Amino acid sequence: MNKGFFYFILPFTMFSFIGCSSNIASPSNSQTSTPSKTSIQVQNTQPTDAADPNSFILTGSSSYFCPFLFNGNNLIFPNPDENNRISIIPSPLPKDILESKSVTDFANYSADNMVLINQMIYFSNGSDNNTLSSFNISDKTYTKLNDDSVNNLIAANSELFYINKNNENKIYKYNTSTAEHSLVCSDSVGSFIINGDFIVYQNLSDNSKLYSIKTDGTNRQKLTDYTANSFIVFDGQLLFFNSSDNNNLYSLDPSTLSCKRISIMNGFQLKIIDKSIYFINGSDSNNLYSLSVDLKNSTATSKSEISEGINEYYLTTSGIFYSPSINVNNIYFKDFSSKS
């Protein structure tokens, strides 16, 4: 994949981006500042394994990887046409494809992961080994926060969670209020989501099996002996595509840690927004499908949404952003109200 293609991050629980294009810096106005607070490394002890399987609880509040921010109806995103420069396109969004000619303003920093808390953008600085950095949209100042190489950046309340590529893909967190920086999980992690007080993650140290750990680094436990390629929280249970069983759809009950096969399908990139589930159907040329799941009766039905091969896609409240397999360096947009 062309390195210009987007890999950046935002949890589905969107934060309010205050201000319009006037709050995004132009290159000539950006300033660099040293951190007002020293980043404090807090090295946690070895994560505590859970003694009681019933201590794992799933709630209705989850945060997932998503590369697009919204200020009302205006889109803020790393623009692959301009080396992932943080850019803004005002509403209404262009039909079908995002292009640089639609960009009205930008911050002159490259990012492949970014989130927004209040008036601060936190991102991985692509020109500095993806180090954790911030950009204040009010006074237009840039601050390097630490030397971690950041991937899979997710914000939860005032804390940032991410995989540190400089330390064997372990999960770290950064407190934006105190500047404390600490190790959360010492396993090598492929991907993760946050649900309430828990992190659910793909443990590369154990053949990509699903694990959970609390956000404070305690109650680590294995959830299943199955390998998962993607996973979401739905109606109090964990849904995942089981790579150990031809990528079929499974559910996991958090109260018993028992797993059940829901449907036979060759699925990838399972994602959810507002209880609407989507996936890439490997049995239909990697087309994008929506998915309806009945947990009580252990059944699922699917419907084609985008009838072309998809390389990657992301869900937002406004619609679906995706890159087709035949043109992975462009970003396309499908409004939820539009038809396949």
UniProtKB/TrEMBL annotation:
Keyword Signal attributed: yes
Highest classification ranks of the organism: Bacteria, Bacillati, Bacillota, Clostridia, Eubacteriales
Region (Disordered): 28-53
Comp. bias regions, Polar residues: 28-48
Pfam family, one: DUF5050
Signal peptide start-end: 1-25
Protein name, entry field: DUF5050 domain-containing protein
Gene3D superfamilies membership: TolB, C-terminal domain
Start and end residues of each Prolow-density lipoprotein receptor-related protein 1-like beta-propeller domain: 117-332
UniProt entry keywords in alphabetical sequence: Signal
InterPro entries: 6-blade_b-propeller_TolB-like, LRP1-like_beta_prop, SrfA-induced_signal
